[in-house]
Write a structure and sequence with these properties.
With 253 residues, this protein is mainly alpha-helical. The protein has 10 helices and 5 strands, in the order αααβαββααβαβααα. Helix 3 crosses helix 4 and helix 4 packs parallel to helix 7.
């Protein structure tokens, strides 16, 4: 870039001072700090990227925010199941990190000289394992927590529920419970019917008066009582579904 060249040309030169000593150690870095063993490149499939990427982000968010875990209302459908599966993948990744032996995976061996170690070889995998367990203990508020399985981790950081209404399908509730058990998450059932009824009652008389045109009046006059009842039932069903969804959202928060 020409403008940078002009600025550099007008700048005062930095003085150089020659001395007969070095800031760095006068040793051969290749012998004192051996390189790690070569590793084969691992390329994740698109499906693995979809699972591992969000799971890593959620772990980073969880440990930085110091929260107690995650909460997901399960509906028995694919959307909430996919979200819960990401938390399950996170628990599996954490447990694998705390149990897998990485000594032959090309990880550097560190040497620590401190009280209680005295020059013993401390592998990076051991440090990583201790760090993960330490973070989990902070999140779980349990200084003695040691994970024994991915489900054990999920039972400490993952909470789910099924928000039941009179329109809920028993099949969906059964699926939600089965998914939570498969992951190891905490599961409960919450009856939302009274909450929805209260919201509908509170909003029953809210809203501007509706203006009816001559065309609508003529159309209404041709409707039978059965047609009006069916239209009212459809309107109430649609309204209830909207209120139901928003009550679930607010209650979840």
């Amino acid at each position: 870039i020409a403008s940078r060249g002009v600025q550099a040309d007008k700048a005062n030169p930095v003085p150089h001072v020659s001395v007969d000593w070095y800031f760095c150690e006068d040793t051969d870095l290749m012998t004192s700090h051996p390189l790690s063993a070569s590793q084969s490149l691992q390329v994740n499939t698109p499906e693995e990227e979809i699972g591992f990427g969000p799971a890593c982000w959620m772990w980073d968010y969880l440990r930085r925010s110091r929260r107690r875990g995650f909460f997901v209302p399960l509906t028995g459908g694919p959307d909430s199941a996919a979200t819960a599966s990401i938390v399950s993948i996170l628990c599996q990744m954490l447990f694998k990190t705390t149990t897998e032996d990485l000594s032959n995976a090309g990880v550097n061996t560190l040497y620590k000289n401190c009280k209680g170690i005295g020059g013993d070889k401390i592998h990076e995998s051991d440090l990583l394992r201790s760090y993960i367990i330490g973070q989990l203990r902070k999140i779980c508020r349990d200084p003695t927590f040691v994970p024994t399985s991915p489900k054990h981790i999920a039972s400490k950081i993952f909470y789910t529920c099924f928000m039941r209404t009179k329109n809920s399908s028993p099949v969906l509730e059964k699926r939600a419970k089965a998914l939570a058990e498969e992951i190891g998450a905490n599961f409960s059932v919450i009856d939302m019917e009274s909450t929805i009824d209260a919201a509908l009652e509170a909003c029953a008389h809210v809203g501007p008066p509706q203006e009816v045109s001559e065309r609508d009046r003529s159309r209404e006059s041709s409707h039978t009582a059965a047609d009006e009842a069916a239209a009212l039932e459809e309107l109430m069903s649609s309204t209830r579904q909207h209120v139901q969804a928003r009550c679930r959202m607010v209650f979840s928060y």
